[in-house]
Amino acid sequence: MDKIVRVNMSDLTTSIEVVPPEWAGLGGRALTSTIVAGEVVPTCHPLGENNKLVFAPGLLSGTAAANTGRFSAGAKSPLTGTIKESNAGGLAAQMFARLGIKALIIEGLPKEDKWYSLHVNQDGVSIAEETELIGKGNFAVVETLEQRLGKKVGILTIGPAGEMRMLSANISVKDSDSRLRSHGRGGLGAVMGSKRIKFISIDDHDAPGVKLVDPDKFKAAARTLAKAILDHPGTGQGLPTFGTAEMVNIINAAGSLPTRNFTYGQFEGHEDLSGETMREIIIARGGKPKHGCQPGCIIQCSQVYTDEDGTYVTSGFEYETIETMGANACVGNLDLVARADYIMDDIGVDSIETSVTFGVAMEAGVLPFGDGREVLRILKDEIGTGTPLGRILGSGAGNVGKIYGVTRVPVVKNQAIPAYDPRAIKGIGITYATSPMGADHTAGYTIGHNLMGCGGRIIDPLKKDEQVWLSRHLQTGQISIDSVGLCHFVGFPMEDNPEFVPALIDLLNARFGFDLTPAWIGDIGVAILKTERAFNIGAGFTNKHDRLPEFFREPMLPHNAVWDFTDEEIDEFWNF
Amino acid sequence: MDKIVRVNMSDLTTSIEVVPPEWAGLGGRALTSTIVAGEVVPTCHPLGENNKLVFAPGLLSGTAAANTGRFSAGAKSPLTGTIKESNAGGLAAQMFARLGIKALIIEGLPKEDKWYSLHVNQDGVSIAEETELIGKGNFAVVETLEQRLGKKVGILTIGPAGEMRMLSANISVKDSDSRLRSHGRGGLGAVMGSKRIKFISIDDHDAPGVKLVDPDKFKAAARTLAKAILDHPGTGQGLPTFGTAEMVNIINAAGSLPTRNFTYGQFEGHEDLSGETMREIIIARGGKPKHGCQPGCIIQCSQVYTDEDGTYVTSGFEYETIETMGANACVGNLDLVARADYIMDDIGVDSIETSVTFGVAMEAGVLPFGDGREVLRILKDEIGTGTPLGRILGSGAGNVGKIYGVTRVPVVKNQAIPAYDPRAIKGIGITYATSPMGADHTAGYTIGHNLMGCGGRIIDPLKKDEQVWLSRHLQTGQISIDSVGLCHFVGFPMEDNPEFVPALIDLLNARFGFDLTPAWIGDIGVAILKTERAFNIGAGFTNKHDRLPEFFREPMLPHNAVWDFTDEEIDEFWNF
User: Fold this and answer.
1) Domains in chain B, please, with CATH?
2) pLDDT tens per residue, chain B (576 residues)?
3) How many CB atoms within 10 Å of residue B368?
4) Nearest C-alpha of chain B: how many angstroms from A181?
5) Cα torsion at A314, A318, A321, A326 (round to 10°)?
6) Which helix (H) or strand (E) holds A535?
7) Count of beta carbons in the 10 Å neighbourhood of residue B97
8) Chain A residue closest to B109 (CA)?
């Protein structure tokens, strides 16, 4: 029997609850957003006792279906003030699902000035005081916990940034190589830090595992789904070969590669940062060009990046980090960006928010554009230790803009805009503007349709036509993906292969005995998008917050593209 | 003929315009808010080229009517994101009025990395490049400009904080003793800094002066108004004797004296900070216990505070600064608070915002509560020079809360709550919540009615009854006061002396040949309040922003008072 596990940090009690019928058909983002919207007062202080931190595996997590191991974390975000869901790979989703835990809800704040850990296993969840690991980086947490609890332990952890309640703090998840994946965006690590939880360990020993109502049907549908993923050129060839860094050259060619704090759309040194270069480097140094973020991944877009001596530097080294640190902050050196990625993982900050923050700090004159050595120093010695400068940079791009009086601040709802300039790829700009999450490329990733013919044709990235429709179509679709526990990138075969959606519906029906039809994809997307929007309205957000920063009206080379949507055109997004 | 003077910093041009008929009956706040609401896009970046900085004297400024020399500054606030009007004493209002300048509107941003000054005289306004005074404190600006332009020059200036576009930066106004009064709230100094204007000098030599349509009627009405001010115990006795610091003991007795970052309502050391103590000290040391902030002031609530050697320390030393630094940050020593006040004036930061910010920083552990020496050091060496810590503290209480993850952050619309805890004086809490300016005691000062029988009876400060009505009544009335150029404190005789309003209307009619009736007071108040609110709605504000911070639900000693208004009760404010 699936269950809800609840932790009250105010009185240090835990409980196990029956899954309410209205939550039975929900998982991942659909479930975290439903719980946060239902139980959290939208106007509460995100770091106060009335916020709740919710974790939920996807509906299909724990099964043998490919790429279904994404784990959702949700809360009111201290960075944006909106509802927030951020999902990650790693081991946690599969372990939670096998333990029958549909959601872990953490509420309240401890009364004493102490730190705690949670331990999740077959019996539910327990709370213990923690002292040894306080102040430690995420890699040390993983190493120590594997010594304490064995190699197989699952881990969710925050670094010093989360302990210090920095607004860019993330929550890291151990992967199968004892490395880290991240619930990166929106400062959820600060919420975990406010609740004084350093880590959550997971033991799925003797877990009941996931029961399938119709195993044969499930197996057949899983095969179809896997084939659709492997047959698609994006998920079957591009991503496994070059990782997400394949986008560097593509986005540079499109003139949408944010450069020098979103001043230009192309970066001279883009070749040095590209997926092609990265692959050559990794192969030459004996790293791993392919790697999965979760067990059961058949795309393998991750990698293990090593230094010249073959020593591990980082993994889960994504395009958005490479771009925002490499081109936007002009640190055009993959080795330096990789080192920065490692430190960001270790101290526990969102690598997108932080890299974009460096671009704003460089514009403010805090350090020169392109000074990668100083970036590394600041990450380690300032942000990692919470000096005043570190506190500033750890609070995200929007706050750095406020503190230094900068006007070129690429944020929406105070969250940093990732590695696609919306002037030259307008569909993604609609996603940035309207997503209830703040600026988030994954919320409705239009790049495939705008540049690569996903969906059967190109929707001209430089024109406004159809972009609102496109973003809405993808935002609702993405919610279904994030709720099932599927990887973001299945969006490509989902759009292009007519067998994908029926197979996905078959999987859900075969797993749970549901009676869903393909209409579920749109239905759950619309329902959850409206739930999330309603939370934000309750928190004080209006259509006036669905806007890109003013500076995007400045023309950007090479296309002299401007952000030219009217308010009315953007607001049309919510007309459904 | 009155005129509008306009400066475009983008192309460094100036122009003189005829007063549009719809602005003819407006002055002070009514005019700055009308211009900002009419000409500034509400969603613009407050430090970007689309914001405008507007200065306007009151309707009666420049006349012989008592206490009519307040000067209004308006813009979109970089601190709050709302429309903002902040008014100050000093010489500027009288000089502008005598020059026939109804408003100075500064728009655009310079293209070059240079600093400028403006010079206002009979011919209008001119722009000059400035180098010598860049980086200098406000007192040095005044001293140098008096050498350059003569003792009689009028001055508006920003300190280093404004140059650095800090969100708590104010705009200072020279008074008749060559000392400073401030447009304190809302970071308007950062707007002036964004436009790269270090100072505005004013020369009213050979100014045409103010013409009265009916001098005899004016004279008679002015006499009635002055008598009403002098006859009232508040403006005629309390304020001239003890200054605004008379409130220390009164608010402490009411249990509403914010102490230790709004944790308690009474401060043990309140006697040491009181107006009574201040008067004794000033007299013993040979300072001035009475002083006017503007020529023509008959209340004289200001003072000149000296050190033990009789050397000038500060003036314009107000209750709200004394309270928030003295009791709320626990620096229970009037000499230290006076020194802090001087430095804040010199570097150019709002002394309320900054003092409340120190309370939050102390809660965050940046420095110990009560460490006045460290306050002085941080003000001078960190905020004044823009170190990272200085940048943080210069960005105001709300941002310090975000950067250090503090939940007890006394702000509304990101502006610091001044020296009256709203749990124990509930009327002022309605003003904080609903004023379009963010938390601002002057916007609708209920203290007289809640504690001192102003209006003929006490409206119980601990009960919710009538507070919404009271705040609305006072907020609309205050707009009329702020538009005429009258001092805030005439609100007392205005409420208590039936001769006051007819005399005020007579003054306006006799000055301009208007045909106003006493209904004007309410009409202008309602109209401007709605104009300001509409701007804020356009900027994305909703009733969800008309809320006090969550922590005011915690009971506060000595009354165990809580902030217990429901959302619906607060929202009733706008039901008119």
Assistant:
1) 3-202 (3.60.9.10), 212-239+422-576 (1.10.599.10), 243-415 (1.10.569.10)
2) 799 999 999 999 999 999 999 999 999 999 999 999 999 999 999 999 999 999 999 999 999 999 999 999 999 999 999 999 999 999 999 999 999 999 999 999 999 999 999 999 999 999 999 999 999 999 999 999 999 999 999 999 999 999 999 999 999 999 999 999 999 999 999 999 999 999 999 999 999 999 999 999 999 999 999 999 999 999 999 999 999 999 999 999 999 999 999 999 999 999 999 999 999 999 999 999 999 999 999 999 999 999 999 999 999 999 999 999 999 999 999 999 999 999 999 999 999 999 999 999 999 999 999 999 999 999 999 999 999 999 999 999 999 999 999 999 999 999 999 999 999 999 999 999 999 999 999 999 999 999 999 999 999 999 999 999 999 999 999 999 999 999 999 999 999 999 999 999 999 999 999 999 999 999 999 999 999 999 999 999 999 999 999 999 999 999 999 999 999 999 999 999
3) 9
4) 24
5) 80
6) helix A519-538
7) 28
8) A407
Q: d(Cα B361, Cα B397) in Å, to the nearest integer?
A: 8
Say if B538 is an interface residue toward chain A (CB within 8 Å): yes
CA dihedral B191, B192, B194, B196 (to 10 degrees): 180
A77 touches chain B (CB under 8 A): no
Amino acid at B343: I
CA-closest candidate to residue B320, choices B453, B214, B184: B184
3-state helix, strand, coil in chain B (%, to 5): 45, 15, 40
Helix-helix angle B467-484:B500-512, to 10 degrees: 30
Encoded amino acid at B502, one letter: P
Q: Do A540 and B541 touch (CB under 8 A)?
A: yes
Distance from CA of B48 to the nearest CA of A (A): 6
Maximum pairwise Cα distance, chain A: 62
In angstroms, the separation between the Cα of residue A551 and the nearest Cα of chain B is 9
Give the number of C-alpha atoms closer than 13 A to the C-alpha of residue B94, restricted to the C-beta side.
23
* Structure-token match 């010594």, residue found: A147
* Tokens 């928010």 -> residue: A353
Supply the pLDDT for residue B527. Answer: 98
The C-alpha atoms of residue A391 and residue A167 are separated, in whole angstroms, by 9
The answer to whether B190 faces chain A, any CB pair under 8 Å, is yes
Mutate to test the interface with B, among A402, A414, A566 (most CBs of B within 10 A): A402
Number of inter-chain CB pairs under 8 A, A vs B: 100
User: How many CA atoms are closer than 13 Å to the CA of B83, on its beta-carbon side?
Assistant: 30
Give me the residue from A44, A395, A547 closest to B550, CB to CB.
A44
Q: For A405, which residue in chain B has the nearest alpha carbon?
A: B165
Find all residues with CB under 8 Å of A39, minimum gap 6, and list them.
A52, A105, A107
Burial of B190 (0-12, 13-18, 19+ CB in 10 A): buried
Element containing residue B305 per DSSP (H, E) = strand B302-306
Helix (H) / strand (E) element for A55: namely strand A52-57
This prediction has a pTM of: 0.97
User: Strands, DSSP E only, in A346-464?
Assistant: 411-412, 415-416
- Pull the structure tokens for residue B234: 């508040």
Closest-CA distance of chain B to residue A190, Å? 8
Name every residue whose Cβ is closer than 8 Å to that of residue A323 and which is 6 or more positions away in sequence: A247, A248, A251, A257, A258, A273, A418, A419
DSSP label at residue A441? G
Sheet with B52-57: strands ordered across: B13-18, B3-8, B101-107, B52-57, B71-76, B83-88
Quick check: B405 and A45 CB within 8 A?
no
